[in-house]
Design a protein that fits this description.
Elements: H1 14-27, E1 36-41, E2 44-51, H2 54-65, E3 72-75, E4 78-79, H3 89-102, E5 111-116, E6 119-126, H4 129-140, E7 147-154, H5 160-173, E8 182-187, E9 190-197, H6 200-212, E10 218-221, E11 224-225
Parallel strand pairs: 2-3, 2-4, 6-7, 9-10, 9-11
Antiparallel strand pairs: 1-2, 5-6, 8-9
């Protein structure tokens, strides 16, 4: 195993980092540390060995990234599926679609899933970074998956003016509301609702309408109720 032998004052040596990564792998319950080799050169950790699931390969990479002094991780761990976990690409694709449909955070209708030799590629557009991350997280734990390429893009958020217009349109579309009584302000990434309505249900309905506009990060409901 190659180790960096250059010692810089005040920084960790390759040996220090290697020891810390190996210790972190011992603490990672999804991985057997004896499955994985660790080499370090100039702060770059190379992981080698083989594991029987993509989840384990990913867990080892996450563990290495958690260690101080690690600048980058080259994940050369091989996924060798046991015969019991072998699945056809069609099976994996169907399972991936099902899993994405069941996940509350992922807009599956905006995604395309391709599977080739057990490797899943995700494409499409979402409005939130957490949706992009969640789609990958859901797919990478499926049995039979050898790897995941996440090509999902996050659409740029609307400008404050566009966002204000979208929310105002949503308020007008909502029959239960008198939209003229409500004003919409956008401050940075926050939407502020003001005005006066006649009932608590209207106040709640206004907030629901605001959340229904695309790219809304947070809503502060300052609407008052006047009976």
């Amino acid at each position: 195993m190659g180790m960096a032998t250059v010692t810089r004052i005040g920084t960790q040596t390759g040996q220090d980092i290697q020891r810390d990564v190996l210790n972190e792998l011992k603490w990672e319950p999804r991985v057997q540390p004896n499955e994985i080799g660790v080499a370090v050169k100039d702060g770059v950790v190379t992981l080698t060995g083989w594991v029987e699931s993509y989840t384990k390969k990913w867990a080892a990479e996450e563990a290495a990234h958690r260690v101080g002094g690690v600048l980058a991780v080259a994940n050369d761990i091989e996924v060798r599926l046991p015969s019991s976990a072998e699945r056809t690409d069609a099976d994996i694709a169907a399972a991936a679609i099902r899993a994405l449909e069941w996940d509350a955070f992922v807009p599956v209708d905006k995604l395309d899933v391709t599977v080739s030799k057990g490797w899943v590629t995700l494409r499409g557009e979402v409005e939130w970074q957490y949706e992009r991350q969640d789609a990958e997280r859901v797919v990478r734990r499926l049995s039979g998956v050898r790897g995941v390429t996440n090509l999902i893009t996050v659409k740029p958020r609307l400008t404050p003016t566009e966002l204000k217009e979208k929310i105002e349109q949503a308020l007008v579309r909502t029959a239960e509301l008198d939209a003229q009584r409500i004003t919409v302000e956008v401050q940075g990434s926050k939407v502020i609702l003001k005005g006066t309505v006649r009932a608590w249900a209207e106040k709640e309905e206004a907030e629901r309408a605001a959340w229904s506009a695309p790219g809304v990060p947070s809503v502060e409901n300052r609407i008052t109720i006047s009976f």
